[in-house]
Amino acid sequence: MSVRTIALAALLASSCAPAAAGTPLPEGVTVEQFLAQCQDKDGWSDPAPPVRLFGNVYDVGTCGIVSLLVVGNEGHVLLDGATPEAAPLIAANIQRLGFKLDEVKWIVTSHEHFDHVGGVAELQRLTGAKLAARAEQRQALETGVVGQTDPQAGMHDPFPKARVDRIMTDGETLALGDLALTLHATPGHAPGSTSWSWRSCEGDTCRSMVFADSISAVSSDNYRFSNHPDYVAAFRASLDKIAALDCDILITPHPAASTLYERLAGEAPLASKEACRNYADFGRERLEARLQTEQKRKR
Length: 299
Ligand SMILES: [Zn+2]
Description:
single chain, 299 residues, Metallo-beta-lactamase, Chain A, seven-stranded mixed beta sheet, five-stranded mixed beta sheet
């Protein structure tokens, strides 16, 4: 390859890159503006402005549901799509930050319930992004109906069908340019519950980011966790796994579950090495309490 060809290739590559190295990332709205718009609002589709959480990580979701945009030098990854009604709001937030929708290359999700994946099909259509999921999420994502093994089967509205482009497994990494997001299978809240971890930096400060899935033992009225010992064993293993993650900044699909807004407001530190362990401990207490309640009702 001649020097001229190499120079041309470099020029073409740089002109295609969504964010050239060294380009400062957009700020989004201030935390104060974000919190003011979401004050006393926690609806799944309540519009929120885009806010930078840390480094290259933005919340582009609604006041009640987190949707994360992780920005890379060869495209971006979107984690969760909230509700069908929220999809256009999420797309508008990405554009409001100054990004083009087709810079979103991958969509991944936490778990296959209406409030977190209902908007995925529309966001896939708007961005052209590929969708990566665990095998346990696939059927619900592609049919829009929660599966029968889900403790919440029958409780959720159906949602638009998405197209799964890639199946990922526990411990696998989604690589895109300078991004590398690791998948952690954390079944329990839903069979396909999935947590994600990666490193993000802000200046010289780098943090282990964890988007830990919901861990609440919630079910339809006729479901008993104690009738499914294998499912409960997997649930407990998920809590152990989350507790053991290298974790500085915890983010959860429902912001209140990890007191995200209180931390953004400065009422508690945004980063804490104990965050994932405390989160898992709380989930464990609730699961064990639920199992005890089921046993009492049996007698
Ligand atoms: Zn859920």
